[in-house]
Specification:
single chain; DNA polymerase, domain 1; TIM Barrel; 2 domains; 10-stranded mixed beta sheet; two-stranded parallel ribbon; 12 helices; elongated; binds S-adenosyl-L-homocysteine; binds iron/sulfur cluster
Amino acid sequence: MSEQPQKTNLMNLSPRELADFCVSLGEKPFRAQQLLRWIYQFGVTDFEQMTNIKKDLRAKLAQTCEIRAPEIVTQQKSEDGTMKWALDIGGGQMVETVLIPEEDRNTLCISTQVGCPVGCAFCRTGYSGFNRNLTLGEIIGQVWRASTVAGFSHNEEHKPISNVVMMGMGEPLLNLRPVMGACEILLSDYAFALSKRRVTISTSGVAPIIKKLAGKLDVALALSLHAPDDALRDTLVPLNKKYPIAEVLDAVREYIAKSNANCGRVTIEYVLLDGVNDGLDQARALAKLLRDVPCKINLIPFNPHDSSDFRKPSGNRVERFYQVLYDAGYTVIKRATRGDDISAACGQLAGQVKDRLKAKNGIASVQI
Ligand code: SAH
Ligand code: SF4
């Protein structure tokens, strides 16, 4: 028996690619808009249900295409309402996605890679090493899959996802094409239709890519800084040896100058590590460093995990660090930890997957 040719997963196509694909089938490009609506606003994956698409085209699509998001393997709910899913991406691997419900919004934190090649000293994901990039379908599939629980936008009874942050596993700017495609789908009026201010890429500072994206991609940018000087940052974020602070901040200034989504300000993320980067002198040095970088500063007390000896600073130390920046005139936010009872907080993703994989498949060691 001859093997069936592999079907095209429409979730792997950006809106532009989907329009090209429709043209390649002899259709008008607006068919792509109809398909996007069905998939991302109604959550429909069965072509037969797409009633405004003519019958013969539906049959043709069903024969050659599929609409497939990663399947949910486990779902956990925190006491504070945070939800975490482990999603199956084949080959015995999983990625994690976290939904953080708040009064006025529903934020989804998605992953862009399996593991991460940057290897920051304090990060659980980085500690696990790098396995592979996620495809577009696997990235946008996380939003789609979470929407099957939170609700799709057409259904007014639900509270659909309103914000997406690329702060899960991986470095988004080292997986550029799929990440850009995902942003297009998140922003498209025919798909998730999110405001550009509500889509955030968080980066450890891939300076040339930030520069390249200036004026080409307009979403909110967050820079993971974590240190006020190169000597310390080199030890925490190894990528700093390649792209030191001054070069990264230059690139960031260029990006935000050409962006509307950022309202002129980048978000600086700073994970506070007890006795490492949370001293008063370091706070003062940070205030000085950022003087000519329009920004708001997000302080994230370290979330402990079993692969790291770093410690979370006391509330008192966090407060003192905060006060220096506040007195220097910065907008500073202390990020509340959400979902740490289910290991869903920043930097905690991946560990449980590894353990769960072990339990599920009896594999002694799985690289994520
Ligand atoms: N790779 C990107 C995005 C994913 S990490 C980046 O580094 O920006 C998202 C955020 O979680 C980053 O700011 C990262 O520094 C932070 N983070 C990683 N491990 C953490 C931990 N254990 N506790 C608190 N924040 C952590
Ligand atoms: Fe990668 Fe971000 Fe973790 Fe650093 S903090 S290892 S860049 S996921």
